[in-house]
Amino acid sequence: MDTKSLEYYHKLVEEKNFSKVAEFFEVSQPTITLAIKRLENEYQTKFFLRDRSHKELILTKDGEQFDKHVVTVLNELEIARKEISRNQEQMIRLGLPPIISQFYFPKITPSLANNKLLRRIEPYEEKGSAILLKMLKDGTLDMSLLSSTTPLTDKNLKAHIIS
After folding, report:
1. Burial letters for 114-152: b for 16+ Cβ neighbours within 10 Å, e otherwise?
2. Residue 60 pLDDT more than 80?
3. Is residue 93 located within the same domain as residue 82?
4. Per-residue pLDDT, 85
5. What CATH number is attached to the domain comprising 51?
6. What is the side-by-side strand order in the sheet with 92-96?
7. How far is it, in rounded angstroms, from Cα 27 to Cα 6?
8. Which end of the chain, C or N, has fewer beta carbons within 10 A?
9. Is Transcription regulation there in the keyword field (predicted)?
10. What is the domain range of residue 132?
11. Looking at 87, 115, 134, which one is the last position of a domain?
12. pLDDT value at residue 6
């Protein structure tokens, strides 16, 4: 999606000067002029009045109204970009039995948050360690906190004892 025309438009509303906007975006002035003309043609209105005698650019009522929508659209698109970026971070599917989920996990949550890992964790709470172990083995989970009276001996799993 090309939002450059909207970005140019909003900056022109702020600056009221084609040259400053072109300089800001490091493009030629005709690029800005063409983008604004395309928008005005698309919406069949004039967003700006040009007073050449005073070298002044005046925003029309339609232009003011359009800018409110442009700001909203640009803000929403930025939020979408950030959300999508976060979604693309690799998520860690973490299995938790109920007791560990309720009592142990809240104790390590601040540390996970400080290391910016908390937002990447997808917790899965199951009824017991045996089910979680099966989910680990079949790849449904990336890691799990388990309770066990004996050490895990599966060569495909890496285990650490937490006391």
Report:
1. eeeeeeebeebebeebeebbebbeeeebeebbbeeeeee
2. yes
3. no
4. 76
5. 1.10.10.10
6. 121-125, 92-96, 143-144
7. 15
8. C
9. yes
10. 89-144
11. 87
12. 97
Using CA atoms, how far residue 23 sits from 15, 58, 65, 106, 126, in Å, is: 11, 20, 26, 51, 58
Query: Do 82 and 110 share a domain, yes or no?
Result: no
Could you read off the pLDDT of 21-58 as tens digits, one per residue?
999 999 999 999 999 999 999 999 999 998 877 678 99
The whole-chain average pLDDT of the chain stands at 87
Query: 1 pLDDT band (50/70/90 cuts)?
Result: low
Same structural domain, 67 and 15: yes
Cα-based distances in Å from 11 to 4, 15, 148: 10, 6, 62
Nearest CA among 123, 119, 136 for reference residue 94: 123
Do 126 and 114 lie in a common domain?
yes
Confirm whether 155 is domain-assigned. no
pLDDT at 25: 95
